[in-house]
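Quick entry, no commentary yet.
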Amino acid sequence: MNTHAPRLPLADPGVKPAATPHSGVAPAAAPPEKLRRDPRRRVLDAAIACFTRAGFHGTSMQQICTEAGMSPGALYRYFPSKESIIVAIVDEERAVRMSCLELLDSAPGFVEGLARMGQALFSGETPMVTLALGPEIYAEAARNPALKPTFDAVEDEMNAAIRVHLVAAQARGEIDPSLDPDVVMVMINAIGDGLVLRQSFEPDLSLAQMMPALAGLIGRMLAPATTPTLSPDRTS
């Protein structure tokens, strides 16, 4: 996000001039704050709004132009395709994803850290566009070679960081040390992906409120196996 004070433009070549109605009454001007925003940011915000409403394949570049208040020529200077827009959205949220790891770093345990991350994401405390567009982005990344490398790089970076915490928790005895960390990571990702998909089906589902219970279930699955104690009258 641009933190510098914006300058008032004399003219924005990427903004379509509004047509004057036949009544002779001048149309309402676009909000100045919208015109002052960085054009690239305007495109990304417009695309996010369109993708959220109509999905990736249900959105055309022209619709994104209209939403952004830009001409096609201006938009294509920044993004040559819808795929390039998705790549930018995924890539710019890298920092947001990695900031979630601070919750894992500060948590008293691995499972509690996962619960705090889930709470922050599903409550909206840590906004993540790729969470809302999750099913759309996952589906497109699976079949689109233009998008998959960026998506994989972001996923691999996040998974590697979480795996480090998982292995450390195994060394502490918090997580069953006999479990294969790679298998555990597949399970954690599957649960997370499933929750995102479930919320897309049930928008009113409060996953944030359910997180303590979900974390309890995950904790029980990953807990070290307990050795049964023998009763006093048994020696074997």
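second:
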Amino acid sequence: MKKKYYLITALLILNITLTSCQNSMKEKQYFWDASVCTPKNYPAEIFSGHLILGDNPKSGYVYMPFDNIINSYNLGDNDGSSSGQAEGISPKTLDITWLSYTENKSYSGIFKLDSDKIESLMINGCERPYWDKETKKIGIIKDFDFSLNAGLFPGGMVVLYVWSPTKMIIVGRYQAHEDDNVNWEMAHPSMKGKAGIKDYVDYMNEDLPQEILDQIKNGTIPFGYWDTLFKEYSLTPQVKAEDKVETIKINYINGEFESIFLSLNGNLMPIKKRAVPRKINIVWHDVNDRRMESDIFFDEKNSKAIFEKIKAGESIKFIIDIDRNTKPRETKGISIKLKTASEEIDMKEAIVSQESFTKSTPY
């Protein structure tokens, strides 16, 4: 009888130990901080902002970057810096109040976030290749460092992104309301009353481009334009096998980006919906098998116009055609075409610039 008792006890201890190990393996290792971005030349400043870990303000939180005017060079840039970070838990609520400088209007909103979706992008980490200088071989590193980036738009639209070293993904779009009760004097003593706020805002807007100043003066800020940035297409990049493309990084006009490591995934191109590309960085091999890196920049409005002419619902091949005789510092050599079932469109009119360089290591 004692033997049976000892056996049961041993099995229970073993089961508890295994469960403990499994729970330890499932421990959430990821951590994140907060950042903010704006469309270029449409600055904003956060008065107060929190990414709340629970369902009410008494829960723990991470501050959004505040007391700093944000004017991003590109939508999706991680601007500003938060005062802390959270580990192993995703936020459930965004509570934010900010000033849109071009409108001289404050906006506020409390938004319920898709916490499960956010966590699904972070919990397993983010794998990326790296070049090990000692072994001179490619290794794989798993990052657990993320940033939650709030895009603040004129008109009160808020777009929340999850940033990692290899991609930026939109996880929610929200609409804030105008807020006339923000005491901006607490942030800047000279912003006392409506007159003080206007004087401060006008002074800070002085260096904006004339086009934007004219919009402010004439009341022609293009509020509806930003909604059009988020239209997605059945867009699939395509390269030739002989070009030995290793990596393609694509930045999109909606603020997202993705890195495609073709040399590690059997040259498989992910099939997904994509917004209009804004920039491409591509690592490839020339005719002498020398590793090259090229940057191609597109004009946002010209690119959008080309895509918007394509028949709705059509699948689009985004063909990257590389002249493998291209030499370093050349500003040509890569052409981009869109191919559908009914037509082929050259993107040359939308390309602002391109340049190629030698690259000694893959990553």
